[in-house]
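STRUCTURE REQUEST FORM
Protein name: SBSPO protein
Source organism: Smithornis capensis
Requested output: structure tokens
Priority: standard
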Amino acid sequence: SCSVTPCVVSQWSAWSGCAEPCKATFRFRQRHIIQEPRNGGQACPALEERAGCVDYWTGQGTECTQSLIPALITTGGFGRARKKRAAADGKERAGYCVEFQLVAITPGCQHSHHSYTHWMWYLREGHTVCVECQHPALDPRSQHCSGDGTGSKKNELLHWRAVGNPRCQGTWRRTRQLDTCSCPSVHSFLFI
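Status: completed
Returned output:
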């Protein structure tokens, strides 16, 4: 018989884990061919799909080293509200500030419509931004904020993500650590 038989594929498998721990990488899912197309039937679609992911835990179940984890940032204005709450316990340690040079920024940063995400509009490639590390984001054991780039190599590209808009993220290079920030307010941020 010469009947036209289209390709038939299975359902997608479950997503895999991240390809590698402790870095921005990918996960994938697969499906397989149940029936090959015959006599000019419709061809088979893609059998694998990939999506981005970051896994914060190593295969042995220990937490990744800090410098590989994307920094999560929000506006410096949030810190003024947060300081009042944190100061109540009296044991607050002085924080520090890290300067970064923005290298890449996703277009999603320009599509932030909520008033609390307007700060993302000011992010520009090449600009220097200041990010404060202060209590309670400051880890009392390591004395660092997660994602602050401590231990990264010179000129290493580090990942950051804006809190409140998952489509706004990018990479930056750590330039230096200071006791206090000196950036204008539109370029002053906080580690979450």
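Reviewer notes: The CA atoms of residues 74 and 163 lie 6 Å apart. The beta strands are 8-9, 24-30, 33-35, 48-54, 71-75, 96-105, 128-133, 158-162, 169-178, 188-191.
Form closed.
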